[in-house]
Specification:
This protein is α+β, with helices and mostly antiparallel strands. The protein is built from 3 helices and 6 strands. The protein has a 4-stranded antiparallel sheet, covered by helices on one side. Strands 5-6 form a two-stranded antiparallel ribbon.
């Protein structure tokens, strides 16, 4: 989960990005590689104004309330998204050079990291 909170035109803007990862083990010759693959990506965007701004607009009449709501909606529609490739760029395969001693069967995340494998002695 990634969160960003910023202020634009004195209106609070929140962006939350939820990323799901899956660990894949690939064989590359006499080695194995551990890769993280993004399986899910979604984001939530919201904007809000302080209560006193709504109170002041309510005191100004229905026109001021509508104007405040339109400004809040316009800011909400202009919230940029978090680019997906930001989360994909740093992900590189990690080589597992000990394939001769231990063949990886699975890697479980998030934490603690659980690595399961088959030792060379047990393989038929």
């Amino acid at each position: 989960e990634v969160r960003a909170k910023v202020t634009f035109l004195k209106i609070r803007v929140k962006i939350k990005g939820f990323i799901g990862w899956e660990v894949q083990i690939k064989r590359n010759g006499d080695q194995q590689a551990i890769e993280l693959v993004m399986t899910e990506y979604r984001e939530e965007k919201s904007s809000s104004m302080e209560w006193w701004k709504w109170l002041l607009s309510a005191l100004g009449g229905i026109t001021a309330v509508i104007a405040a709501a339109v400004v809040n909606l316009a800011v909400r529609l202009k919230i940029p998204g978090l680019p997906k490739n930001v989360f994909e760029m740093p992900m590189e395969a990690v080589a597992w050079p000990y394939y001769e001693q231990l063949r990886l069967d699975s890697v479980a995340l998030p934490s603690p990291v659980v690595i399961a494998g088959t030792p060379k002695l047990l393989e038929a």
